[in-house]
Amino acid sequence: MFLGISYRLVELQVVEAAQLSEKARTQRSISLEVPANRGDILDRNGEILAMSIEKDTIFATPYFVEDTATTAKELGKIFDEDWEPIYDKLTEGGGFKYLRRKAGRSIAKKIREAALPGIDMYPESERFYPGGTLASHTIGFLGMENNALTGLELVFDKKLRGKAGSLEMERDTQQRPIPGTPLISNPPTHGEDLILTIDKKIQYKAPAELKKAVEDAEAIGGWVIVMDSVSGEVLAMACEPTFDLNKFSQADETLFRNHIVTDVYEPGSTMKIVTAAAALEEGIYVPESVFTLPGTLAIGGYTIGESHPRGPEIFTLSQIVEKSSNIGAITLAQALGKERLYGYAEDFGFTAPVGIELPAEARGMIPMPDDWSASTLATVSYGQGISATALEMIRAVNVIPSGGTLVNPTLIRSGDDSSATSGAINKQGGNGKRVLSRKTAATMSKILQRTVETGTGKRAQIPGFAVGGKTGTAKKVEPGVGYAPGKYISSFVGFTPVEKPGITILVSINEPQGVYYGGVVAAPVFAAVGEYALQRLKITP
After folding, report:
1. What is the per-residue pLDDT across 219-247, written as a single tens digit (0 to 9) for each?
2. Topology of 27-55+118-167+180-196 in CATH?
3. In Å, what is the CA distance from 140 to each residue of 41, 143, 248?
């Protein structure tokens, strides 16, 4: 007996010692990842746009569950769901089973009160967006595992998420910590905050006015951008329709698309700003130059006319812009020639992406001059046969209020040393590149001011402020179809105050019904948003 016992002791304490020790450790130990606190996303004034809140994740350690059926039924009552699937989880083996991720406070309280053996919880963060739909296309959102999926959350994920830690502890059969046992802890490195150029209050106002305009026009959607004319800082950016960031899983995935960044469209008449500015900069014409313009032109086998039919008429260069004459724009372009017109379009940023700090930015397209047909010079002059994103469009028009320089829109406050994921930001040109002389820019500002005062942009006027801008009504292109009958993108892009750089705003309405001109459906949004933004920024009349 003594020899038998001795043999068994040697077998347990020597031969099987390591295996049994590991089995015991597994039974009494639990190892958890300790997530890092994700950094907040803040607006330019420190208002929180995205934050992490603590929830409780409920899990089971089946080894320690004493009465599986009773436990499953009790959990079913607390979770308000069938208990059989819970029972299956508790009996399928393993040392750790999730029961409810990121449970609400009421459920967590009931679990604590029930004190079920083998059932425990640990804190886990969940992303919360106080504004709900506010800047949803810009901010983006996280999945259940706190993995970044879209927007700034994705681009700046590395900066925001930090580095997770770990925690290993030993517990008895009642799930109580075992006194004297080691607690192994590797603390997390918490994420950094991200400060945006967005102004929360302007960001509320802009989509509210956009939504009203989209509904009034019975359109399928629209977008608006508000930008500081000098710095390029984006004060507001919104698409309609939108979605609630806190309930993104319930939204149609098509709503996640940020049309401002990912879509290209024909600029339409807003391109006449570039054509007119180029003619002035080259010294070919002055604002008072007089032209006798026919009602139509036959070019390259096509007959091109005005949006509103007319007979022969006398225009000055200023009036070509103010009245948005296609024939006038063609006349200016013919004097410039295709090489110079293409060169100015390139200088205005139409052949390079903006490099905004958001994923999946598209880029517009202008054919190389060698590929132009007989009619291309004409159509490019008034914004057809080319494409641009809304970001490229507002950057181009902003050359005028910025004093002749190309400034890239940005969403990150200067001074924030944020670094995005590799390749996500690719700044092209801009940031002070001179496109026009200050004299030409000032001249164009006055022409665009008259466009609002007496031309096609009258509904963009703001009491007490001089406004400059241009309407645009572009036909929509559908692959394999060409220009889709009755489908337009109607825009207004402008700036205020004219005498001193302030804000630049672009508004586009996608497929308005009935009256579809940019001066009718988009310009009023500019006026409402612009007036509010001027007050908010304390810019005096």
Report:
1. 999 999 999 999 999 999 999 999 999 99
2. Penicillin-binding protein 2a (Domain 2) (3.90.1310)
3. 11, 10, 10
